[in-house]
Protein: Zinc-ribbon domain-containing protein
Amino acid sequence: MIVWGHKGYQKQVGQTQSPIECSNCKHAAPWDITEVGRKFTLYWIPTFPYARKYYLTCPVCQYGKEISKDEIARFLQY
Ligand SMILES: [Zn+2]
Structure:
């Protein structure tokens, strides 16, 4: 019998190169880029990720929004 499962994970991708002014708390700071998704597990060992989503969040008030993978590259560019 093969045991499959899944497990949620969260990973810090990086920070934006330039400060963003938050429309919620009005602070300007580099925002955190976080990857959130799930991983299939085989015999409780995480394998490949799926259902990946990326979020941009204000480090001050945690206000955030979902962004696409293409947008990450744009935010991480020097
Ligand atoms: Zn904020």
About this structure: The chain has one helix and six strands.
